[in-house]
Amino acid sequence: MNxxxxxxxxxxxxxxxxRHAVVVGGSLAGLxxxxxxxxxxxxxxxxxRDRFPDGPKPRPGVPQGRHPHVLLKGGQxxxxxxxxxxxxxxxEAGAPRVGMPSDMVMWQNGRWFRRVPATTHxxxxxxxxxxxxxxxxxxxxxxxxxxxxxxxxxxxxxxxxVRGVRLRERSxxxxxxxxxxxADLVVDASGSGTKAPQWLTAIGAEAPHEETIDTxxxxxxxxYRGPSGVLDGETLGYYVYPGPDQxxxxxxxxxxxxxxxxxxxxxxxxxxPTGDDEFVTYTKRLAHPLxxxxxxxxxxLSPAFGFRRTANVRRRHxxxxxxxxxxxTGDALCxxxxxxxxxxxxxxxxxxxxxxxxxxxxxxxxTRRVQQALLAASRQAWDISAGADRxxxxxxxxxxxxxxxxxxADWYLRRVQERAPGDPVVGSAxxxxxxxxxxxxxLFSPPVARAVLFRPIPPTPAEPPAAPDEPGSRT
Length: 475
Known about the structure:
Structural class: alpha+beta
Radius of gyration: 23 Å
Helix content: 25-40%
């Protein structure tokens, strides 16, 4: 990435005659960033600490890979723009496409959602399946190469400019020596466990300022095959959303092979267990026994896996004084509480933002400008996740106080949430914002604002609705 005063779209490789970018991390964010860079570099190298599996299998570098993942509408649009035809491939692979709210039984803030016709759809297949499809498409580009089974252990360069990375093969040899890989641009897509703050400090640069909010939420997941005729017709899944007044959450989401991935969640000090019997017992803490009743007849197909690293963390690499030639994206830039299902969508939206920032003919793509574009791509997801988690009991962190403006917005959003389960107009706007397919301003459009400010809370089903609303139903 060039400095502000240079006219070239990309810094040359110090007279080497080629433009080389290194992407740290071969997960979704890294693969899609590499794809975006391939149109602007002569060579892109993806460095991944794992060995890529043969086919759609979980791997150690994706610790939450065995847990539920959803691809929100905003992420679908970004993926399709990056990899045309990808959604058709996803459907051909069997990934369930779930209409919201018609295909799900959902509970939030003491109310069951009316199952009105779907206004958005999500994909709920496994993370391993989606990542394998992306990996196959991206690595078919001859510009992109992979160095896997290798750790990045540091950066080359100084406080003014990053000039590459230091690598060490994960051979198990204790005396293995690092080697250097020079680059004009390094993109950190190594995930929430990024070591970039230490790498930057080691070359004399300033580490990014971190904003954090941590509710202590933990969850556990397990694969089940349900009884025939249940969760395979008009109803595809269940979900009970946690909130300040009911901190336990859980549900069952369909996978591509006809099974369901069951998740339960709780807060610090009341984490879900991973023992077989204890996992089932924990579902009794939800606001309604529908999931517990389903599990009584379902067959477990896997052990339960736990996950506890759910803090929201935003690293401000966009602030002045950061070195040129270094960017952060995906979870390495902004990590969200996974319970909101935003990570894969933001990875795709960030890659699209990277592509667009590099191709913008109106502005020179300086490191800071491109980093600001990446931050902007994650901002709405951060506002949703951090805004919700601030209200949870026991939340800690450096970004808990949103200020007076946020407190006013909280009042309005609370009224939105009260009306979304029963009002189709408010619900449609609410889902569009949550799925990152419409800006937050959609919640303030005149039809939504009238319902939120002047109409009473509409009635909702007293019990879990067993079927979608009949066409034209108003109660």
